[in-house]
Protein: Trimethylamine N-oxide transport system ATP-binding protein TmoW
Organism: Pukyongiella litopenaei
Amino acid sequence: MSGSDNPAIACRGLWQVFGAGADRALATALATALDRAGGDAARAAADLQADGFVPAVQDAGFEVREGELFVIMGLSGSGKSTLIRCISQLLPGTAGEVLVDGENIMRAGRQRLIELRRRKLGMVFQHFGLFPHMTVADNVAYPLRVQGIGRAARRAKAQQVIDLVGLDGREDHYPRQLSGGQRQRVGIARSLVTDCEVWFLDEPFSALDPLIRRQLQDEFLAIRTKLKTTIVFITHDINEALKLADRIAIMRDGRIVQIGTPAEIVLKPVDDYVREFSRDVAKGQHARVASVMQAGDGERGPDDPGLRPDMTLDAALARCMDLYQPVPVWDRAGQCVGTVHPADLAAALQVEEA
Ligand SMILES: Nc1ncnc2c1ncn2[C@@H]1O[C@H](COP(=O)(O)OP(=O)(O)OP(=O)(O)O)[C@@H](O)[C@H]1O
């Protein structure tokens, strides 16, 4: 495991450029951009594009903390899948660094990558590629078989994760006998069976109908609290991102344009592209009091609305309807952790009209 000071994953200057001779073309484009006044990654990407290359990921840089659920979101074609494939090294990356627990896995040899995938990195993709001739139990236990673990131990461990994803009773079914949602669960169970430290999920629920999707999201959050695994999750659905994420990275045309908590994305979008995503989102249900709270002390008066930092803006506003002065915010131990003006709660919800 990594030390608590180190991020679980760090990407620095990561590029994935498609096209023959992309490495040399990127090096030239970066050198040319540097020589120009105000030269930057966007200029290099524009040059590459003009020469017929596809700069699908451009100079990506971010860190994912240990145990964090980091969501990458963007429109179709913005580069999400390419980015997660670079981080998980299904694609080599054209330049930059991908550090997992401090190890630059872009320099890892083939053997080391196989090892990392078997023991440390779990992956779930939209189309799971379950083995049709194997039962649920055998599909789930398959990664353990590859690791050379004995049959009894495989079975026992597979059963644990089958129970965890709610598929108990279906161990002996074949994939064709399962619904789409159940098949996704098998894929999730299979990727969890090796106790991975870092878990990559590329649109795992997007093929499902909304009801099943919501149910799996809830189960996913429940599983996640039990596992404490570091997770990188891709989606093009803002509501899914807001529901699941600790932090969200928004991609546009190969670039990460904003990284922030769900509240920051909803309340402080950096540009119209990000603002457009959250236009129809019920901000008051996602943003929390902590995001609009000021430093300060307060006393509990007779009208105290009992605000907490983790309360949604909607809930907080409902308690402050008749109040016109700053009110204290309390933690669970009853300590005042700041104050908030009821007008600021209302203003935060209006931000996108500006
Ligand atoms: N192997 C490839 N060769 C050339 N271009 C590619 C390749 N793979 C992806 N691209 C291009 O890279 C860009 C980013 O694609 P990517 O699949 O990463 O986007 P995405 O955000 O995941 O989209 P979606 O949500 O539709 O899956 C697109 O312009 C795509 O056409």
Notes: The chain has 14 helices and twelve strands. Residues 210-227 form the longest helix (18 residues). The domain at 284-353 is CATH 3.90.1280.20 (CBS domain Like).
